């Protein structure tokens, strides 16, 4: 979407509107023709009130929003944009709001979420200059245009597996100002953000502002952090696929740029002097159309998908995240039959500054989930080339581990992601929470591991299903239930009955179930075949 949009904006055939100023070295007649077209296409500027309020936290609350991504408040033609409210939890992560003591110690080793501050460059100012030679002390205006600001691009490339090397701030360079002899300023340098394949980019709010707001809510509500984020909503201006669409698809972003008719750079006489002149007022009314069309072009480009950008495949060419501001017009464009010595030019348009949340979601075929110390890491170690940390204490796995399982020399392989153990109350931020669930969201199937060594493994299974979002969410995936540690008291009728209870429960949902002993390498070959089927591979 962004790549197509950038192509359209850069296509000269599509961008030659009435607002397109003449090329360099324009004559007075060229400028007169351009200004005449602007007058013919005179139009009203967008009301400033419609450009205010996007990305603001609102105090209204609704428990219904916990199950829907957004609530539509108003739509065109009643309002210029589709105004929506969405839970604050969609635009921030818990890890960026927690104190340093609450953050896990493995953060330096594995980083799968980052919030970046990105800024595109502002356009350079137009120049106020006049031609000079030996015979003339002052000639016609020859001030060049300012260069466009640099843009921020993003590209998903293979070979990366973490977001740890990303900086916290990425700023493109501003465009250079124009110069004498009709020289345009240099374009600002772009910046490129390289991320691993599987990264999802979402618009988010300034973490510092959210942290201050959340702290005030927590003091009055006395609720868990996750519930505070779910209860409070963000007001957004959105757009759809077409002008009067009622369904939001993109968040509208706004630049802090000057209004139509403003943004003049004067040399010699000040703004008050020029505003008092009829010839300047007439010129400014025409140039307002140029400002409005430039602003509208910016608005069309300054949109970001409501659900984010999913970079699940390598991107051969970078995608434009934030486009740089347009350079200001030099005084050579304001030479007319009446205005012979224009001592003014236009200031460059502002760049765009936004925050984005980068989430790395693994591309594993299967997700391995279970309670802490259920034996997930031992299973992954037995079936794949991964070497996860194994121990006899809870939360041995502190970050996701991905292994590749090979079925044979001439057969296909599949990947398995092992995430930290999930405990009862994880959805309420207990234990390690559900921060790592993102790594199995793309998986075709989930392998749920329970330990027959536990007192009530069926209850453990129900706990996992609940924390994963309930039966409705789990049944969207292929499911294989693995009963590990089947060698413990294998002759005990009570232990055998534990397996039968789980088997009968799984049959109701047509899930496959298998007893194994990862420690003693029992039933592992059959487990690999069943996991391949769960991953959607034909046997």
What share of the residues lie within helices? 10-25%
Q: Which consecutive residue ranges, at least 5 long each, have pLDDT under 50?
A: 1-16, 44-53, 58-68, 101-108, 388-397
Write down the Rg. Answer: 30 Å
Q: At the fourth CATH level, what is the homologous superfamily of the largest domain?
A: GTP1/OBG domain
Whole-number total of structural domains: 2
CATH class of the largest domain: Mainly Beta
Strand proportion, as a percent range, falls in: 15-25%
- The CATH topology annotation of the largest domain reads as Spo0b-associated Gtp-binding Protein, Chain: A
Would you tell me the structural class of the helices and strands? alpha/beta
> Mind telling me which CATH architecture of the largest domain this is?
Distorted Sandwich
Number of strands: 22
Major β-sheet annotation: 6 strands, antiparallel
Q: Measure the end-to-end span.
A: 39 Å
The averaged pLDDT comes out at 82
State the oligomer: single chain
Number of helices: 12
What is the approximate shape? elongated
InterPro entries: G_OBG, GTP-bd, GTP1_OBG_dom, GTP1_OBG_dom_sf, OBG_GTPase, P-loop_NTPase
GO molecular function, one term: GTP binding
GO biological process, one term: mitochondrial large ribosomal subunit assembly
Keywords: GTP-binding, Nucleotide-binding
């Amino acid at each position: 979407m962004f790549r197509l949009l950038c192509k359209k904006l850069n296509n000269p055939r599509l961008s030659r509107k009435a607002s397109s100023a003449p090329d360099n070295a324009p004559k007075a007649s060229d400028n007169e023709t351009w200004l005449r077209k602007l007058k013919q296409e005179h139009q009203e500027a967008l009301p400033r009130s419609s450009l205010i309020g996007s990305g603001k936290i609102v105090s209204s609350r609704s428990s219904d929003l916990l199950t829907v991504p957004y609530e539509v408040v108003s739509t065109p033609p009643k309002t210029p944009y589709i105004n929506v409210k969405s839970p604050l939890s969609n635009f921030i992560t818990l890890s960026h709001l927690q104190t340093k003591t609450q953050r896990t110690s493995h953060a330096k080793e594995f980083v799968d979420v980052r919030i970046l501050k990105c800024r595109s460059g502002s356009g350079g100012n137009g120049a106020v200059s006049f031609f000079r030679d030996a015979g003339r002390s002052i000639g016609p205006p020859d001030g060049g245009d300012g260069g466009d600001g640099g843009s921020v691009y993003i590209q998903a490339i293979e070979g990366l597996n973490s977001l740890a090397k990303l900086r916290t701030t990425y700023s493109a360079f501003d465009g250079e100002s124009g110069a004498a002899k009709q020289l345009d300023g240099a374009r600002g340098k772009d910046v490129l953000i390289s991320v691993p394949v599987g990264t999802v980019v979402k618009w988010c709010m300034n973490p510092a502002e959210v942290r201050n707001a959340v702290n005030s809510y927590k003091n009055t509500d006395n609720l868990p952090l996750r519930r505070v984020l779910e209860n409070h909503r963000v007001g957004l201006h959105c757009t759809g696929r077409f002008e009067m669409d009622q369904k939001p698809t993109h968040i509208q972003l706004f630049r802090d740029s000057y209004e139509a008719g403003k943004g003049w750079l004067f040399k010699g006489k000040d703004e008050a002097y020029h505003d008092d002149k009829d010839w300047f007022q007439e010129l400014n009314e025409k140039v307002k159309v140029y400002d409005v069309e430039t602003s509208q072009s910016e608005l069309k480009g300054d949109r970001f998908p409501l659900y984010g950008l999913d970079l699940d495949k390598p991107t051969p060419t970078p995608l434009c995240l934030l486009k740089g501001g347009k350079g200001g017009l030099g005084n050579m464009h304001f030479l007319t039959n009446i205005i012979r010595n224009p001592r003014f030019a236009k200031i460059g348009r502002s760049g765009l500054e936004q925050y984005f949340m980068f989430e790395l979601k693994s591309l594993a075929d299967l997700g391995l989930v279970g309670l802490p110390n259920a034996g997930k890491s031992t299973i992954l170690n037995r079936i794949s080339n991964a070497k996860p940390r194994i121990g006899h204490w809870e939360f041995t796995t502190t970050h996701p581990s991905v292994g590749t399982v090979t079925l044979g020399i001439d057969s296909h392989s599949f990947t398995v992601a092992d995430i930290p153990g999930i405990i009862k109350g994880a959805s309420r931020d207990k234990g390690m929470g559900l921060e790592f669930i993102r790594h199995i969201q793309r998986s075709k199937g989930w392998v749920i591991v329970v330990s027959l060594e536990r007192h009530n493994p069926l209850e453990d299974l129900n706990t996992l299903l609940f924390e994963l979002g309930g039966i409705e969410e789990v049944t969207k995936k292929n499911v294989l239930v693995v009963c590990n540690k089947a060698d413990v008291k294998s002759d005990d009728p009570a232990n055998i009955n534990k397996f039968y209870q789980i088997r009968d429960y799984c049959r109701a949902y047509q899930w496959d179930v298998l007893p194994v002993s990862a420690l003693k390498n029992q039933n592992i070959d059959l487990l690999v075949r069943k996991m391949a089927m769960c991953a959607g591979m034909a046997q």
